[in-house]
Structure formats: structure tokens, C-alpha cells
């Protein structure tokens, strides 16, 4: 029997990680977010900071479309993707849980009973939140949001060939700025 899994994709600053953790807590199931990075680091031997960054950049970046860096075999990112897929699949097979990010919605599309969620909010809500919660100040918060979302979208498209954030790819999209974090948690609890 397939376990019930909630996968959460999110715009940077929308509170998706918080919503995932709170939802898991209310449901009494584990939530995997930074824990995934640690598991991938342990298995791959790569530094956790490298894995975190690699998970938001499409392999080859800008030049990937012009020159294939796969001419000499799989890249580090490809290797990490394989480990990530295996770990996410194993977690989903083990028990019901919430998985935040890392293309879990795509990885588990045919392997688990998934509620695929996308959390978004308007720019003002997210800009305020990253300054208040994360202390972001180095550059304009709006530019930081755009850059981070652009990287997430490119990574997601590279490995899934799907448009990140496109409503048709999810079971539900929630505007955390309009609904609030706690209401989003309550909605997911009810849908579970």
C-alpha cells in the first residue's frame, strides 16, 4: 500500500517550509527539508552547502543550452539527482511524511499517494518575510526573491521538463500571503 505523502514546492519567502513543518507536526508525521540535504551529503560525500546550492541551479547554468557538459559523462549534479531520487523514494516508501522542495512532487508522481502542493505569495509579502524571518539585507529583497525563484524554476524544468509553479502540475496552490500560514496548514490538514 502506498503511503500518503505531502510534497510542498514553494516560492522563496512564501513560508512553504514553515507550512510543511507545521502541517507535519499537526498530522504527527515527519517533515523532510534540510534533513534531505544532510542525507544526500552523507551518502554522496559532498558538502551539505554544495548540495543545497546544487539543488537550485540547473547543471551547466547559462551555457547548458549551448554546450553540453555531459559530453564526458554524468555531472556532479546528475549524481546528486540520482541519490536525491532514491532517498526521497525510500522515505515515501517507509512512512507517511511531508517533503519540502527537491522536486519531490515529480520524483514521487507514480510511486506514492501524493498531495502535490505549491505555496506562493505576492512580492510584498515575501519581501517582508525574508527580511523579518531570514534577516536578508544584502541586496534588495525583491531582487533576491526573483533570483532565487528563477534558479528554482530552472532546476525544476531541467530535471522534470515541467514548468515550476504552473497550477496544472499541482493538486492545490495556496497563496500564503492572502490566507496566512496557519490557514494554509489547516487546509492541508483537512485535505490529508
Structural features, described:
This protein has 192 residues and is of the alpha/beta class. The chain has helices at residues 16-27, 34-44, 48-54, 76-94, 104-107, 123-134, 141-160, 176-179, 181-191; strands at residues 4-10, 31-32, 97-100, 113-120, 172-175. The protein has a 5-stranded parallel beta sheet with strand order 2-3-1-4-5, sandwiched between helices. Helix 1 crosses helix 9 (181-191) and helix 2 (34-44) packs across helix 4 (76-94). The two termini are 16 Å apart.
Largest sheet: 5 strands, parallel
In helices, the fraction of residues equals: 40-55%
Span between termini: 16 Å
User: Which CATH first-tier class would you pick?
Assistant: Alpha Beta
* Helix-strand pattern: EHEHHHEHEHHEHH
Strand tally: 5
DSSP strand content: 5-15%
List low-confidence stretches. 62-68
Radius of gyration, taken over Cα atoms and rounded to an integer in Å: 16 Å
Which structural category fits the helices and strands?
alpha/beta
Number of helices: 9
For CATH, the homologous superfamily is named as: P-loop containing nucleotide triphosphate hydrolases
CATH architecture: 3-Layer(aba) Sandwich
Rounded average pLDDT = 88
Overall shape: globular
Count of domains: 1
Amino acid at each position: 500500500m502506498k503511503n500518503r505523502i505531502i510534497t510542498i514546492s514553494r516560492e522563496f519567502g512564501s513560508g512553504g517550509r514553515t507550512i510543511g513543518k507545521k502541517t507535519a507536526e499537526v498530522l504527527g508525521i515527519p517533515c523532510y527539508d534540510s534533513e534531505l540535504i544532510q542525507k544526500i551529503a552523507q551518502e554522496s560525500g559532498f558538502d551539505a552547502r554544495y548540495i543545497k546550492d546544487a539543488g537550485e541551479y540547473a547543471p551547466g547554468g547559462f551555457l547548458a543550452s549551448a554546450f553540453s557538459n555531459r559530453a564526458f559523462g554524468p555531472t556532479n549534479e546528475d549524481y546528486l539527482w540520482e541519490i536525491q531520487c532514491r532517498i526521497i523514494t525510500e522515505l515515501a516508501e517507509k512512512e507517511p511524511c511531508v517533503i519540502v522542495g527537491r522536486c519531490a512532487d515529480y520524483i514521487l508522481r507514480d510511486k506514492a499517494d501524493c498531495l502535490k502542493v505549491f505555496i506562493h505569495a505576492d512580492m510584498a509579502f515575501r519581501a517582508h518575510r525574508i527580511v523579518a524571518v531570514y534577516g536578508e539585507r544584502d541586496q534588495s529583497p525583491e531582487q533576491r526573491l526573483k533570483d532565487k525563484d528563477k534558479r528554482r524554476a530552472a532546476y525544476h524544468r531541467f530535471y522534470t521538463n515541467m514548468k515550476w509553479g504552473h497550477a496544472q502540475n499541482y493538486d492545490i496552490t495556496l497563496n500564503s500571503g492572502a490566507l496566512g500560514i496557519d490557514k494554509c496548514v489547516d487546509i492541508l490538514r483537512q485535505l490529508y
